[in-house]
Amino acid sequence: MLKIAVVENEADQADELKRYVGQFAVESGEACVCSVFLNGVDFLTDYPNDYDAVFLDIDMPLMDGMTIAERLRGGIDQVVSIIFVTNLAQFALKGYRVNAMDFLVKPVGYYEVASELKKISGMKQDRMKEFAWFNVNNTMQRVSYADILYIEVISHYIYIHTRTDVISFRGAMKDVQDSLDMNTFSRCHNSYIVNLRYVVKVDSNALTVTLDGVDKAILISRSRRKAFLDDLMSYIGKMGSAKIPGSTD
Description:
Elements: E1 2-7, H1 11-28, E2 32-37, H2 40-44, E3 53-56, H3 65-76, E4 81-86, H4 92-96, E5 102-105, H5 110-128, E6 131-136, E7 139-144, E8 148-154, E9 157-162, E10 166-170, H6 173-178, E11 185-189, E12 192-195, E13 199-203, E14 208-211, E15 218-219, H7 225-239
Helix pairs in contact: 1-5
């Protein structure tokens, strides 16, 4: 589902953009929720930080759209897609300084809005591939792949070691493995899954792997050694490197 905000002080134009979002939802089959704000103050007050995109006018009373965008990027929301919808084309270059996704000049037609929504949907799908969901004490918790250093299992308890803390719950390693992108992770041992992006050294003689930010060496089982090295070589190849860094193999 896409969550869209429209910030436009002209009520008729705001309603038109909302209708376009609704039309896109019907034609594409993508569920959409669209919230309309007639000024930037209301928009930023109690900002929920879960919008996928905001269609933002620039020329508005109380607070202009460029100021709104600067406040979003200043710490409120670094990732929401910003699409300026305005007749002030001279602000286009300035808009890219706040990482605007696009700049639509009024009057805006349906197909322009639909094109933006299609891109936003694709971007959201890509972002969702970078997270895993875990059932932690009957609460679903989303964890970014980039935050996970390694995962271990001890006596039927899973311990997810992230860059900031450790998440633990009772579970099976196979279920955890099935929830991960195994192009980024590799199971090097029955008890361990490591994030390949944090590998800094592999000692094939000692059968250990060293991860950036982890004090202890992670074990590699003999039965999984070849598959793990293949996974690592494949990952490094995608990153544009030629060999395993620090490998003694």
